[in-house]
Amino acid sequence: MSNQISTNQILLNLSSLSDGFDKISSKLSTGKKINAAKEEPVAWTSVSKRDAKYNELTSVKESLGEVAASIHEADSTMGVINGVMDQMKSTLQQITKSFPPYPPGSEERIKLLKTFAAFRQQIEDLTFPPDAGAKKILSAGGDNEWTIAIGSDGMARTVRKEEVHPGPTGLNIPDLTINASDTEINSALDSLEKASVTLQDKRERLAVDAAGIARTDTFTGAMATVNKRTSESDNAADMNDAAAQLKSIDIQQSLSYATLNISSQIDSKILRILG
């Protein structure tokens, strides 16, 4: 009877070891540190928070990359506008510096003033680029700054609006008609000089905002990497621990089978003796 009890206990132990073997094998095959919250609630919560933070930082970094691209687009547009203003100056100077001067109403003067108007409209059109972010920066109206969330805790970066349309709140370039006087043309040339300085100031402010976005992007990327590497390190350590547990179970199973074999041999000997 005592030997039968021992045999039953060995079989129970083998069943328990088999369950443990299957559980550890599943962990190794899936590569998951914890397969369910009930296995280790505290660790599960920690891992979940780390994964959520990594995903959040990755999303923020993607957003910052899009913002950086929009800033680059806005600055490139400002560069184009600067070139258009140079052409506007040259156009008006052909009127003021010609000898003899083109009189009001002359065909040459009207043609040049129409060219000036076309350049001014081109600047207006350039303030509506295809990129939505660049449009927020360059176009009139809307908020005075573009706010970019960089965390669930309310942290944010801002990019200032830099209106570059030809209107009064932008570059303030006057709209000349074909009947513009010499005084109005000379005044427009002065306005273009001021507009060039204004545009340069706007580009410098935009560069400052771009640098802030770049620093935030670098920091966010570093933090995302830290979270990822920490998670990978924890998983690697857990996989090593799981492998060790699996080896231990394998040894215990071998010992149990050996014990069961010895027990069976003893039963056979007893039967022979009793027989």
Explained architecture:
- The protein has 275 residues and is mainly alpha-helical.
- It has two domains: 2-31 and 229-274; 59-220, f41 fragment of flagellin, N-terminal domain (Up-down Bundle).
- It has five helices and two strands.
- It has a two-stranded antiparallel sheet.
- β1 and β2 (156-160) form a beta hairpin.
- The model is unreliable at 1-5, 34-38, 255-260 and 269-275 (pLDDT under 50).
Give a brief description.
By secondary structure, this protein is mainly alpha-helical. It has two domains: 2-31 and 229-274; 59-220, f41 fragment of flagellin, N-terminal domain (Up-down Bundle).
Keywords:
single chain; f41 fragment of flagellin, N-terminal domain; mainly alpha; 2 domains; 75% helix; 5 helices; two-stranded antiparallel ribbon; 275 residues
List the helices and strands and how they pair.
Layout: H1 2-30, H2 41-96, H3 107-126, H4 132-138, E1 145-149, E2 156-160, H5 182-274
Antiparallel strand pairs: 1-2
Helix pairs in contact: 1-5, 2-3, 2-4, 2-5
- Classify the helix fraction into a percent range: over 70%
**Biggest sheet features:** 2 strands, antiparallel
- What's the N-to-C terminus distance? 17 Å
CATH superfamily grouping of the largest domain: f41 fragment of flagellin, N-terminal domain
Query: Which strand order does the major sheet show?
Result: 1-2
What shape does the CA trace take? rod-shaped
Number of domains: 2
Task: Provide a count of the helices.
Answer: 5
- Going by CATH, the architecture of the largest domain would be Up-down Bundle
Topology as a string of helices (H) and strands (E): HHHHEEH
Number of strands: 2
Residue stretches low in confidence (pLDDT < 50, at least 5 long) are 1-5, 34-38, 255-260, 269-275
